[in-house]
Amino acid sequence: MKIDPRHLMQLSAIVETGGLTEAATLLGSSQPAISRMLSALELRLGQPLVIRDRRPLQPTALGQVLAEQGDAIRLAARRSAEAADALRRGERGTIRIGGTPFFTDALISGMIAEFHQTHPSVRVDQRYGYTTELKTLVKSGQLDLAICPVELLEEGDEDLTFEELLPGRNVVACRVGHPLFKTHPLRPEALLEFPWIEPPPGSALIADLRTALLAIGATHVSVCYAGGSLASIVNYLKVSDSLTILPHSVVFAMQNAKEISAIPLDLEHPRRSLAILRSGVSPAPASSTRFAKHVISAFQELRTLIRQHEQAVVWGSGD
Predict the structure, then answer these.
(1) Whole-prediction pTM value?
(2) Secondary structure in 3-state letters for the chain
(3) Structure confidence by residue, pLDDT tens digits, 162-206
């Protein structure tokens, strides 16, 4: 025999409140409607569900069993409504984000952890990629947003939105206590006396490194290590006199560890910004909108700190 789940929910309310009027109030219904339902259900089942001469109303054995099923249905309905509301507010759900490896490891992963302190029910699925690939993934709806270096939105990017987080600035990174810090005056040519670590294939930093070295007159440099992750490059740097090129924000984010630092030489900078890319066509999940606001706010604070640090350092010319 199939029983309407709504009737089980109504019976559950009757047993919980102990009365037809009280159950109607709880469910936003009317006492006559609840009474008719109860009588029709008892007639169909061929036995009573409540003991009517007791106040508050007491369930029969069958009434108690069915009321418990109604409890479960009411609980599931309430939880479903709560889940839907949480998704609508961006307090639950899954955010699919992409980012370039160095920025993600040095900056974004920590921001994700901070976001989870106030939004613990939101899952973040993160993947690595470089700008061209990440643009494609956002356009196709496989990512909700991407955080990556962007020069300009090109033809074919009309369905993407772009919001700058930090202006592009690269620095020469090395270990704390590198011999170059003791060189006065520091000449750009001195950079060529040490081996270099080349950024991973596909990274825009490779082109930036070549541009910077050409600007100081290099025709050849010694590359001692290539293609490593940020963690492996930092581990290599801190026990060697090698140099590499990194975004200043990445080096700044790691300064508290006191393992790597930036050589105070001003490099030729690409016309590029770290930005959030999102679809301008598909509506974003509320959770991803909340996360984007969190990242933007975090970068506003970081941008101020980096600017203060840059103003405190006397940067020599790399030209």
Answers:
(1) 0.77
(2) CCCCHHHHHHHHHHHHHCCHHHHHHHHCCCHHHHHHHHHHHHHHHCCCCEECCCCCCEECHHHHHHHHHHHHHHHHHHHHHHHHHHHHHCCCEEEEEEECHHHHHHHHHHHHHHHHHHCCCEEEEEEECCHHHHHHHHHCCCCCEEEEEECCCCCCCCCEEEEEEEECCEEEEEECCCHHHHCCCCCHHHHHHCCEEECCCCCHHHHHHHHHHHHCCCCCCCEEEECCCHHHHHHHHCCCCCEEEEEHHHHHHCHHHCCEEEECEECCCCCCEEEEEEECCCCCCHHHHHHHHHHHHHHHHHHHHHHHHHHHCCCEECC
(3) 899 998 889 999 999 999 999 888 888 899 999 999 998 888 888
Class in CATH terms, 170-271: alpha beta
**Which structure tokens are listed for 136?**
């494609």
In CATH, what is the architecture of 93-168+272-312?
A: 3-Layer(aba) Sandwich (3.40)
CATH architecture assignment, domain 5-89: Orthogonal Bundle (1.10)
Residue corresponding to tokens 């975090």: 298
